[in-house]
Structure formats: structure tokens, C-alpha cells
Design brief:
382 residues; alpha+beta; four-stranded antiparallel β-sheet
């Protein structure tokens, strides 16, 4: 789950992380009033769930309230296109107005789970305002890393190492990073990114930007975090899928995919690409889905107007192949779809599942293996 920059800053400030003074505006008139209250230079920042806003014109520096009003008027209601939104962009409904800072240096500071070492890791770089992936590709040795032992937690000496490596004031840097770590742990975050982290000319360390993502599996114990969810920022089909406990991510292809298991879903998308096609989604129905979930998963797939054919790729371990077949047959009859559906079933009750599909007398193509399924669905979609 993602939240807006202004929400992340409010959360972090509650843990003692220093953030700029700012307020949110939903109209240009509000932006004018906020800028007038602050006086001097302000930043006008579009609030969307995507990075790279500066490259898309979503961050402007206003010298006076009139400029702040002008920039806000141009942003609010517009579609902001950034490297992370895709060409369709995202609609801006809010802007954050922040008091200007006298910046001396900019840095990158982030915290994420490193699955290789099974540790939370702090990452830092002297190149603030630059995507960390770009730094890693160009000069990986420029990224400082400190892995956190889950038993003892983040230690002051680790914060000091990062501070010395960046050239930051040590005492304030230790306080900042310790507060960031507490916020990460307490909120069940999956990502915290401060880019840029700035040092001001009066010696303050401030989170000029803030991005936070959270572990969906822990939201049941994070009531405050759940309340920050902005459904306007999410893909409608993804919201619909979440109501049925399905893992769905919309993509830009024309081959709909229904798979059980994230690993198999990734492999399915890969083999579709290898066959010359383009997947329209990632959809993992999980190991314990019932007939109703499978039926709703199929309906979500075909609700995407870009989908021209569907590949159902199921390995029946915990989930039985006949359960999938029953759900798909019901969904096709309910919706009356008339485009091709390719099915590959293996595992528990596979023969029973295939028999259900054959007896349905519907537009199914039963595939013999993943490669055959990919070839058939790509041909059907094109």
C-alpha cells in the first residue's frame, strides 16, 4: 500500500524526523493563502502515487503567493506524466505547499528489505534527487549500505558510519536515522525513501521528500495506516480484486493471465513475452481460492478492455484443478465472453478439471504444457 508524500511526512514527523513546514491545498486559492501565510519562497508539489514528479513538471518553486497560485492552478486537475506513471499519467487532485529551505547539500537515504541477506538495509548516497537505480547502474560503489540485525535492531554506530560516509553532522544524523528506523518498524513499512535528504545552511537535516510503502499483510494491525489509503490513486480493477483477496496488478498488454502462485505468475508472463506476446496483468489467485474467487478473478480479467485472449495457467497443489475449471466455466457462462480462453492445468484432479472444460462446450483451448499455452494464447490475442 502506498500513501502520499504529505501523509508520509506527517507520520515521520510523529517519530521525530525533521520535515519542512507544509500544508495541502485542493485549489489554487488555497495554495495562494498558504503561500501568503508562509511568506517568501515556497515549493508547490503535486501529490500523486508516483515518483519522478520533478521531471514531469510536478514540482515548482514559487517566489511569491501569486506564482504559487499560478503553479497550483496548472497542476490541480491536470494529468501529470512521469517516468513512473506511464504515458496515461495520473490526475493531480492535491498539491503540497512547503516553506522554502536554504539548502547546502542533497543526499539520498532509503530503507528497504534486502531479501538476499534477510535483513532490513539502510542505503545512502551523496547523489540526492537522483533515482537510486541510476546511481547503482553507474557507480554501485557510491552507495553506502548498513544491514540491520533483527535481534539487536539499528545501532548508533551504524548511523555514525553512514553519517561519516556522507559527510553529515554526526549527532543530528544519528537522531534522524534512528527516528526513521523506529517509524519503519512501528508502521510495518516495506519501503521508506528520503530523496532528497537535505542539509540546510544552518545545520539542520531535513526530509525534503518522503515516500512510504507498507506491507499489505500487516495492515490488519495498522488502523491508522489503512485510513490513509487513497482509492482515487489506485487502478479500479486492483481495488476490485483486493475485495476478493486476489493479487492483481494491471499491465499494458492484451493477454489476460490467471495463475496460482506468484512465482508461476512471473514465469507465465515471461513465457508470454518469449512467445511474442504482452501480458495484460499479473493475477495470482493463491493456493486456497474457491470457485467464487476464481469466477470473480476471471470477471476482473475480462473487464480490462485491452484483453483479447486469456491464459489460465494452474498448477494444482493446494488448489485443485477441478475447482479452477468450475469457476472458469461459471464465469464464462455468466459473462458470455466470446474471445479465446487457453487453459493449462497440471496437478491435483487435473483429469477431472479437463473433463469439466471439455463437457462445457465453450470456447476453451486446452494446452499441453506452458510453452504450448503461450503460443496458443499469443496467436489468439493477435
Amino acid at each position: 500500500m502506498k500513501i502520499h508524500e504529505f501523509q508520509a511526512k506527517k507520520l515521520l514527523a510523529g517519530y521525530g524526523v525533521t520535515v519542512p513546514e507544509g500544508r495541502v491545498a485542493s485549489s489554487s486559492a488555497e495554495a495562494f493563502e498558504i503561500a501568503r501565510d508562509f511568506g517568501g519562497v515556497v515549493a508547490v508539489k503535486a501529490q500523486i502515487h508516483a515518483g519522478g514528479r520533478g521531471k514531469g513538471g510536478g514540482i515548482k518553486i514559487a517566489k511569491n503567493p501569486e506564482e504559487a497560485e499560478e503553479f497550483a492552478a496548472a497542476m490541480i486537475g491536470s494529468k501529470l506524466v512521469t517516468p513512473q506513471t506511464g504515458p496515461e499519467g495520473k490526475k493531480v487532485r492535491l498539491v503540497l505547499i512547503e516553506r522554502g529551505l536554504d539548502i547546502k547539500n542533497e543526499y539520498y537515504l532509503g530503507m528497504i528489505l534486502d531479501r538476499g541477506s534477510r535483513r532490513l538495509v539502510f542505503m545512502a548516497s551523496r547523489e540526492g534527487g537522483v533515482e537510486i537505480e541510476e546511481v547503482a547502474a553507474r557507480s554501485p560503489e557510491a552507495i553506502l549500505k548498513e544491514r540491520v540485525d533483527p535481534v539487536v535492531g539499528f545501532q548508533p554506530y551504524q548511523a555514525r558510519k553512514i553519517a561519516f560516509g556522507l559527510g553529515l553532522p554526526v549527532g543530528k544524523a544519528v537522531q534522524f536515522m534512528s527516528a526513521l528506523y523506529r517509524a519503519f518498524i512501528d508502521t510495518d513499512a516495506s519501503l521508506v525513501e528520503i530523496n532528497p535528504l537535505v542539509e540546510t545552511r544552518d545545520g539542520q537535516i531535513v526530509a525534503l521528500d518522503a515516500k512510504m510503502n507498507f506491507d499489505d499483510n500487516a495492515l490488519f494491525r495498522q488502523r491508522e495506516i489503512i485510513s490513509l489509503r487513497d482509492f482515487e490513486e489506485e487502478e479500479p480493477l486492483e481495488i476490485r480484486a483486493s475485495r476478493y483477496g486476489l493479487n492483481y496488478i494491471k499491465l499494458d498488454g492484451n493477454v489476460g493471465c490467471m495463475v496460482n502462485g506468484a512465482g508461476l505468475a512471473m514465469a507465465t508472463m515471461d513465457i508470454i513475452k518469449l512467445a511474442g506476446g504482452n501480458p495484460a496483468n499479473f493475477l495470482d489467485v493463491g493456493g486456497g481460492a474457491n470457485v467464487n474467487q476464481v469466477k470473480n478473478a476471471f470477471k476482473i480479467l475480462i473487464s480490462d478492455p485491452n484483453v483479447k485472449a486469456v491464459l489460465i495457467n494452474i498448477f494444482g497443489g493446494i488448489m485443485r484443478c477441478d475447482t479452477v475449471a468450475e469457476g472458469v466455466v461459471q464465469a464464462v457462462r455468466d459473462t458470455g465472453v466470446n474471445f479465446p480462453v487457453v487453459v493449462r492445468l497440471e496437478g491435483t484432479n487435473v483429469e477431472k478439471g479437463r473433463q469439466i472444460l471439455n463437457d462445457a462446450s465453450l470456447n476453451f483451448q486446452v494446452a499441453d504444457g506452458m510453452a504450448d499455452a503461450a503460443r496458443k494464447v499469443v496467436a489468439a490475442a493477435s
